[in-house]
């Protein structure tokens, strides 16, 4: 099999075609936790950040916006329900209205439920699929449509997890959704590469968030442990010796959103301290 070299003069990188002025990023699920840390980091990187979350989470959205602006950045709040594609389309429109274009979209919104498979309610199963899979699908393609129309490429980034490589007990449906995000990310990267769009995902490990507090509580109840013991037991698998914080994940997203990752696409980058090697 032979390949024909591409004339370098005909290949425009996303960096060379990018518009002048501040880049604009939209981050879903940004009212708290990892999403808020990502929004703050992108704001510190100089991007105008559209901080998006559910209508019920607007107090947290306002807090994230305030944190970004207090640090000298620029941010705009938005109400978004990722299960409604029209709502995601409106988020993209808000980003364009705020900054003239959309350069980065972080599909961070997601939910988790800690429950054994035998006890999992079918309605809860449908809900987690709707948020974690359909929500990422809506986000990816609405962002891509805008970036293709602009003609200067862009960065699309999704929330996967260590469970996209190694499922955890009591997180069966959540694990399934994150495997789906990993596959969707690879397919989107293939389809949109010709438009100068990179599509990647980040995979947090054990992070000090409310989800892991709940996992610890459920495992402790099942195994007759004290609160904190189950988390500590899982944390012993971390080679770097500490549980992650949201800022660890935000640093990876900063890289995926920046020019240094222009030649990286279709990847799910683990941020787990060395639990799982891919």
TrEMBL record:
PANTHER family: 3-OXOACYL-(ACYL-CARRIER-PROTEIN) REDUCTASE, SHORT-CHAIN DEHYDROGENASES/REDUCTASES FAMILY MEMBER. Pfam families: adh_short. One of its GO terms (biological process) is fatty acid biosynthetic process. Residues 1-13 have a biased composition (Polar residues). This is SDR family NAD(P)-dependent oxidoreductase. One of its GO terms (molecular function) is quinone binding. Belongs to the short-chain dehydrogenases/reductases (SDR) family. It comes from Brachybacterium saurashtrense.
């Amino acid at each position: 099999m032979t390949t024909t070299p591409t004339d370098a003069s005909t290949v425009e990188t996303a960096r060379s075609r990018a518009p002048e002025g501040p880049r604009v990023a939209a981050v879903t699920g940004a009212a708290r936790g990892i999403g808020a840390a990502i929004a703050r980091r992108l704001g510190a990187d100089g991007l105008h950040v559209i901080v998006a979350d559910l209508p019920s989470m607007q107090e947290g959205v306002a807090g994230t916006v305030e944190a970004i602006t207090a640090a000298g950045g620029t941010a705009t709040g938005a109400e978004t329900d990722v299960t409604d594609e029209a709502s995601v389309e409106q988020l993209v429109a808000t980003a364009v209205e705020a900054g003239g274009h959309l350069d980065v979209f972080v599909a961070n919104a997601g939910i988790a439920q800690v429950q054994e498979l035998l006890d999992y309610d079918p309605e809860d199963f449908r809900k987690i699929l709707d948020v974690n899979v359909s929500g990422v699908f809506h986000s990816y393609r609405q962002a891509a449509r805008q970036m293709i129309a602009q003609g200067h490429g862009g960065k699309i980034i999704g929330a996967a997890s260590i469970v996209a490589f190694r499922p955890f007990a009591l997180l069966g449906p959540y694990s399934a959704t994150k495997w789906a995000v990993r596959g969707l990310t690879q397919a989107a990267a293939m389809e949109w590469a010709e438009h100068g769009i990179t599509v990647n995902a980040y995979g947090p490990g054990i992070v000090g968030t409310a989800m892991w507090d709940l996992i610890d509580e459920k495992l402790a109840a099942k195994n007759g442990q004290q609160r904190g013991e189950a988390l500590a037991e899982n944390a012993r698998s971390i080679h770097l010796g500490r549980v992650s914080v949201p800022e660890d994940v935000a640093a990876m997203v900063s890289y995926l959103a920046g020019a240094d990752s222009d030649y990286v696409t279709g990847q799910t980058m683990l941020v787990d301290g060395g639990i799982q090697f891919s």
